[in-house]
């Protein structure tokens, strides 16, 4: 799907110097779908964290029930031991009274039978509780293993993202102070490049210095096939004045796809990449000053882990 969208944009802007309203609307619809996909990834992570919390609550509940059953089993063991001791004493007494009257022997035999019946009932109850306790213990272990496996996957993803951030920071350290920043937040990595590093005013052609930075980033990303890459183009609020494009929407998309081509040409799997234009509508600073506008004119490369394994574990 992404290849089709990218090819459509490339063919459109190559063969036509002006864009029809219908095509613009199609592009806008595709962009909205891409933005919804990005939001869905964030919601999916929150859903995973909520699922983990629910499993932990369930585990705590099972642990409490297990402890209660264990205490009950202990009480039953004690009762069983006391009854068995009492029975043994009565049995010994019965043997001693065997020389006494038949009536007393009959009474003693009746008591013995009653005690035997109670003992058998306690044994049955104890067996039932032991079986239930074993079943609960097994379920408790299964839940514990599931939570441990889920936590291990989450930890692995976090470690993977930290390792990726370190690799990116190392690869791009030569561009520090030149309009490039690398930040990790919300489980994702944000590589921000200001236009002064990448493009000339109103242009979507990547300059030599900016191309070098993107190529060095591509080298790292090409070795991480498990990462989703979202390229967002951003502009300031100054209207586009060129003749080739319509407005800042077109310009932001063209700049995003220009970065996509460099990444793809340097070995990044195109199925990992999504291109999007955000125009002037997601500024990070005020557009009232030249400094703020410069910050708003940027490319955001957002790297997110693939969460398919965690989703599969939760569904299973």
UniProtKB/TrEMBL annotation:
Choose one Gene Ontology CC annotation of this protein and give it.
membrane
> Which Pfam families does the annotation name?
OmpA
Coiled-coil spans are 24-174
Q: Which segment of the chain is annotated as a signal peptide?
A: none
Q: Which PROSITE patterns has this protein been placed in?
A: OMPA_2, PROKAR_LIPOPROTEIN
Q: Where is the OmpA-like domain?
A: 186-307
**UniProt keyword annotations, A-Z:** Coiled coil, Membrane
Write down the InterPro entries for this protein, in alphabetical order.
Bact_OuterMem_StrucFunc, OmpA-like, OmpA-like_sf
Q: PANTHER family, alphabetically?
A: LIPOPROTEIN YIAD-RELATED, STATOR ELEMENT OF FLAGELLAR MOTOR COMPLEX
Protein known as:
Chemotaxis protein MotB
